[in-house]
Design a protein that fits this description.
The chain is 53% helix and 0% strand. It is mainly alpha-helical. It has one domain. The C terminus is likely disordered. The chain is globular and about 25 Å long. This is VHS domain-containing protein.
């Protein structure tokens, strides 16, 4: 089942499973804090992987959080490997 995901997405899901006690949408701030922490720790993490995982938790209508939109702490810049 994990074969459909990139390494970044697998890392993201494992991080969320370990660091967020509940993936219930009621605890959205904890989820966002965990995602932002992961982005800080892994600045080259693909922001699309993070957003895909957030959409799996909160639904497809979930909008990109500010910390991904700014690309200051997460996401590859054009030209990065």
């Amino acid at each position: 089942m994990l074969n459909n995901f990139s390494i970044d997405e697998v890392t993201m899901m494992r991080f969320l499973q370990i660091c967020v006690p509940s993936l219930d949408p009621d605890s959205w701030q904890n989820v966002l804090d965990a995602c932002q922490s992961l982005c800080t720790a892994r600045p080259r993490l693909n922001k699309n992987s993070v957003l895909k995982c957030l959409k799996q938790i909160f639904g497809d209508d979930y909008e990109e959080p500010v910390f991904l939109d700014e690309r200051s702490s997460c996401g590859r810049k054009d030209g990065d490997l």
